[in-house]
Design brief:
The longest helix has 20 residues, at 4-23. The protein is an alpha+beta fold. The chain is 22% helix and 24% strand.
Amino acid sequence: MTSRRNFLMAGAAFSAWIAADRFAPPAQASNHGEAFEITRTDAEWRAVLSEAQYRILRQEDTERPFSSALNHEKRKGIFHCAGCGLAVYSSEAKYDSGTGWPSFWQSLAGAIGTRADNSLFMTRTECHCRRCGGHFGHIFDDGPPPTGERHCINGLALTFAPAAV
C-alpha cells in the first residue's frame, strides 16, 4: 500500500528529474536530428574551435553582451561561420541594435537555417549555419526595415573578412 507521503515524494522526485533534464545545458553538440553537409565528431569540433566557440556553436551557449569585438566592426566585408567558413552575413545588413551582440537585419541568401527554440520559458527563433549546424543566435521581429528582423548573433560564432579595397 502506497502512503500519501511516498506518493508525494515520488512526484517531487519525478518533477525535479524532468526540470533538471529540461533546463540542463546539452552535454554535447545538438543538431536536433538534422543532417548537415559538414559533420565532425565532438573531438574534431573541439580541436578546431576555441572552448568558448565550442560552447556557442556546438552547445548553443550565449556570450556575454558587449563582449564581442565584432560589435564595433564597421568595415565593409563578409561575416563567416567560425565553424565551417560559410559566408553568412554581409556588413551591409549589420546595424547597432544596442543589445550588446552583433545584429543584422538579414542573412545572405541560403546561409542560415532556423528552428523553434522553446527554452527559457519562451518561444524564439534560433538560427544556425545551414552547412555545419553551428548555433549563431536568435532572430527577433523588432529589427529595422526592410525586413523588420533582428538577427542577434554571438560574435564568437563568426569571423570577419574585410572587403578588398
